[in-house]
Design a protein that fits this description.
There is one protein chain. The chain has 2 domains: 1-69; 70-409, no CATH class. It is built from 18 helices and no strands. The protein has helices spanning 2-20, 22-34, 50-66, 78-92, 97-120, 124-151, 168-187, 192-212, 215-230, 235-252, 255-262, 266-269, 273-291, 302-305, 320-328, 330-354, 361-378, 390-425. Helix 1 runs parallel beside helix 3 (50-66), helix 6 (124-151) packs across helix 7 and helix 17 packs antiparallel against helix 18. The N and C termini lie far apart (98 Å).
């Protein structure tokens, strides 16, 4: 009851503000979406209320007030357009279009906001605010989960609020991304109180991941810890901390969670029903792909088409890459991977170039935060199918805007450098004075 009143009051204020100030609307949308405020109240109608109202108001406000200042940009989002077209084609030729169309609409909602985010991400200040809005939203959600988990004495199995974070693996995926995003951004935060808060939130997200008992989640958490340590100035200390954390987890962590983590051992997985089921699902997915290599069986059709390709018990594909290949074809899967590696590679290369010049440290931090978070996203998705995770695409949208801004900054720095060299070494053109 109180939650409903609070969220409705928030929307009454936020929707008009999003209309009049579209960039603020984008920030509110990121906060609302990734803190999952909608799902705490309207679990069965997550696409019909708050997030949609904010999105529509922000889009209308963008075309009225922001379009000239922030025109649409597709330079670094061409693969998303191709992916969108392919998902639409797969939907048109799906075994059941009634199942596929809602999935296409979900992708479309995400992609529209991704393009909007890219358009408004046109200054260093705006990029910082966009990244912080997403990171702090996930951080608050993870911190709440950590408090609930600790109050339960470590006995509760943590689940998400609903929507795309309902199931434990989905929830853990978002939180592992939150760990990476928060801990990397905290490095460049000059305000001590906010830096400490971000570190605390990142640790809280990690604790909640353990509370989900998700094996894919703990693999993502390990990937986040390794990547953050690799890019740290204190690598030795970082690896020691990882080792100590692993020892503490297996010695004192929740027994049920530790027992699940131990099944990652290959000898144990030979009798683990969950792992066997995944292998059977992957085998079935390859059979679907062999029959429909270009367009697949259609978005969200995997489970319903399962009996036509296998005698195993129907279940989800449990891999974003394999599932996407079976549902929308090999080109869709390759495009999806291309979107990820394109953004990761671009952020890696841009950061290396920026750090050659003074005054670019913060932009470098933003590049690193996106690069590490997208790499972390890829790891759990080998074992769960969250190719429609909105946070990932929103980060890709920010990375596209950051790439344009970063290249512009590099051109300015190189021009200044060249001008300085010319002034330093150019011989004087003034005529020599001749003594009379």
């Amino acid at each position: 009851m109180l939650r409903g009143i609070f969220i409705r009051a928030f929307l009454v204020l936020a929707v008009p503000l999003a209309l009049l100030q579209p960039f603020t609307g984008v920030l509110l949308y990121l906060w609302y979406s990734h803190a999952r405020m909608n799902d705490f109240v309207w679990r069965d109608y997550q696409y019909l209320y708050g997030a949609l109202l904010l999105a529509v108001a922000t889009l209308v406000g963008y075309f009225i007030f922001e379009l000239r200042r922030s025109p649409p940009r597709v330079t670094n989002l061409k693969l998303i357009i191709l992916f969108w077209i392919w998902i639409a084609l797969s939907t048109a030729f799906a075994a059941s279009r009634d199942l596929a169309i809602p999935k296409l609409m979900q992708f479309s909602n995400i992609f529209v906001m991704t393009f909007l985010i890219c358009a408004v991400a046109n200054s260093e200040d705006r990029i910082r605010k966009l990244l912080y809005a997403a990171a702090l939203a996930v951080g608050v959600l993870g911190s709440k989960g950590a408090i609930d988990f600790i109050l339960s004495g470590g006995q509760a199995v943590m689940k998400g609020p609903g929507g795309m974070m309902n199931e434990e693996n989905e929830y853990a995926l978002a939180l592992t991304m939150g760990v990476a995003l928060l801990l990397v951004l905290a490095r460049g935060e000059p305000r001590r109180w906010l830096k400490i808060a971000m570190y605390v939130m990142g640790i809280g997200c990690g604790i909640t991941v353990v509370g989900t008992h998700s094996r894919s989640g703990v693999l993502g958490l390990a990937a986040a810890a390794l990547l953050i340590t690799i890019y740290s100035k204190r690598k030795v200390l970082g690896f020691i901390a990882i080792g100590l954390a692993a020892v503490i987890l297996f010695a004192y962590g929740p027994k049920a969670a530790v027992e699940r983590y131990e099944t990652l051992n290959t000898k144990v997985t030979e009798t683990d029903e969950s792992v066997i089921g995944r292998l059977q699902a992957w085998e079935t997915a390859f059979a679907m792909t062999k029959a429909h290599p270009l367009l697949g069986v259609g978005p969200l059709n995997f489970v319903y088409q399962f009996p036509y390709y296998s005698a195993y018990k129907p279940r989800a594909p449990h891999s974003a890459y394999i599932g996407l290949m079976a549902e929308s074809g090999i080109p869709a899967m390759l495009t999806f991977v291309g979107i990820l590696f394109g953004a990761i590679g671009q952020m890696w290369a841009l950061r290396r170039q920026l750090l050659r010049y003074a005054g670019t440290a913060r932009l470098g931090i933003y590049c690193l935060a996106i690069q590490v978070t997208l790499l972390v996203y890829m790891v759990p998705n080998f074992f769960i199918n969250r190719q429609n995770q909105d946070l990932m695409y929103h980060l890709v949208g920010i990375s596209a805007g950051l790439a344009i801004l970063g290249k512009q900054r590099l051109r300015e720095l190189r021009a200044d450098e060249q001008h300085e060299l010319m002034e330093r070494y150019q011989p004087s053109l003034e005529p020599e004075t001749v003594n009379a």
